[in-house]
């Protein structure tokens, strides 16, 4: 009989068996019921909680997933891994008495929708909303218990109104270093007006023009526009953040060349918060690997700022972590983009310039221009590659080393970046390998100022590499006023820094690798900036009454793109083509009346909407405030163990370790400083889930073939008769190995998919997908169903028994039940869903093997344990067991400690390493008591044969090792 006929016959014989068809009916019915009843609605303190003391007394739990982007390709089975995990955890928390907020929105601005619009002419909103609808349908089918009232998309004007509002709060703020927090810019203006704070440049505030005041404030604002080196991608027609550029200097999206260019762009002064972003990591429950990545990205280092005089009172400032090596500085290097390069480059080469320094150019300006063009085509990573040959060119100027008066040549080289320190270095080639290689290439002096601890000696002409040490003594470092000779590094650093400050050549300082956040994009599909410019080019914020500033309609969604290799181009944005929208007459309510303005035509980056979305989940329909303070305090405010507040559990991929998490932390701190929120951190606990991988099969040409069409024969793999290779990798449409959740739900049901994804392994570990293994979890659910329901009649088969103390439930079953309850509770609390499922399986198998009807109390406890993991079948069985309330808000079972501890455990007794006896003892037996019992055992006594005992090693309650004399 065929497999199809066998299945059909089975269904006739057992019409009430749990099948895929039955699972589909059950799941659809309960999903509809949950929606209709508002089962997952989380009450706020200003609403339902206020009138319900019982609800108000419950502890809260705010659980979040990282914002999904609604792709046109829909979900594959790898995408919902984290969503299912947070759903299981949220369901468990509800069942342990918590008021749980768990929902999901959509991060919907960004380049993919815009590129699709360019290709098809479909408005980005149309395609994006269609993708969201499809994704919502797929997620709903999984039975995720989201509070759907709280869902939104970043493209909703009601949402990005507040994204724009937050931008304006940042724009209208400055960071007061003395107070250690952000303050409104109006308070800074008041300080300038009163003279309490001197105006940079020394002129009184009252004498400054409108434009001059704007320029002064721009140097303080936390959101500011400036001309700065940016990553310009002609092929995409937009600038990119450093993090959006690959290691080989190309765009992450599209793989186009990226060049350095100087453009006027919006920036966020995230660097003002560098210390707090570092310090507050200590109060967060995050993986140490993520904290380390953030610390490295922020890159705090202590050292000194040193001024090297050049000419006419000008100086080149450098930051160095090793001012103790200042006597060893024999040349200087500026980043090619450094603004002083042009200022210090003379018309002709100075007398005595070495040929190797000029790069073969007739004049310094020619050399500088050629080298700058060369450096602009490389990424920061390429420029700092350790293995590459060092290149550079002399700019024709000398600077004075302040400690010894030596004239040191000034070069530009691509291994120095404007993004670190001052964009200039003092080169100490004896102590830095890159400087050493550069000095050798350009025939520059190498002076030993740190005594080598190896046998190389101090004659640097014999050295093969640089020598760097923090544990050596300083040598060759003295002048008439200061001597470092013989000092250790810490003492030498302190002494030279004191001398620099006293002589006016520098001061001790702290530097950060972190750079300000480039916040402009030359795109259409993003949040418009709520900024307009007057006739003088001064930026003005729109009043809150004019928010949201919505995106206008445009005929062409694409930014103007150029020859990908043409660096001599500049952006032209889609919004700039809509002149009616760009040029407007507005009354900004500042007392100046209606005036002509020009709107900002860049848009915000896609990161903007995800910087604060946790707050919108709290109060999604509030049109008057960002968030109700009482609501924010309830869900996110500081509490015991959470000194900075934040979301209780945030689950997502480790790939967001720096960008999203750092940006969101920055916005939270600004809002906290300004008094809009009580939480200084957005996410208290972070958990990084692993990845579901899949095998990629490639033919002899290296082209991926459909995984579903590959056959395995004798350990090899074939596609249409041709042998193919197999390699574990990502799952995706382009690799032809994607499996959709819809397929698995159709074949087995959503509960089976949920169980399989949670049972595959620890949540934080990547694991391979195997469709053939899914059936194992389907069979678990079938056995669970059979333990409660008669497959022939559909009747409930559980039996009502008296109190367990009466003996109606056997002790073995009670012990199996309570051990399972205890273990599953601990596992669900610790996000160990795979081991929780193993414990449920063990209990279910025990009940199956007894061959007797399952006691009702045991069946109900088992159903409640299954409920967070497989909610649809649990809800159905709960209802069939005679309950009218939802399993979602039922109390999770509590274990009886008396049945959790084994009555006896087996202790192995060894003599000379060989097992001589096995004893049944109490789990709580002491080492002393166990030793007595073991030595008195008849088998042990016989095995010893009267020999004296030299030593007894006891590991109660499971091992005794006896060593005869």
Task: Describe the protein's architecture and organization.
The protein is built from 31 helices and 31 strands. The chain starts with a helix and ends with a strand. The strands form eight sheets. Strands 22, 23, 24, 25, 26 and 27 form a six-stranded mixed β-sheet that branches. It has 965 residues and is α+β, with helices and mostly antiparallel strands. Among the domains are: 165-295 and 518-599, no CATH class; 301-512, Isoleucyl-tRNA Synthetase, domain 2 (Alpha-Beta Complex); 903-964, Ubiquitin-like (UB roll) (Roll), CATH 3.10.20. Helix 22 (741-748) crosses helix 23 (750-759), helix 25 (811-829) runs parallel beside helix 27 (856-866) and helix 27 packs antiparallel against helix 28 (871-880). The mean pLDDT is 92.
Outline the low-pLDDT stretches. Answer: none
| Radius of gyration computed on alpha carbons | 35 Å
Give the DSSP E fraction (strand runs of 2 or more residues): 15-25%
What is the share of helical residues?
25-40%
Structural class: alpha+beta
Count of alpha and pi helical runs: 31
Rounded average pLDDT: 92
The counted number of beta strands is 31
Shape: globular
End-to-end gap: 71 Å
Largest sheet: 6 strands, mixed
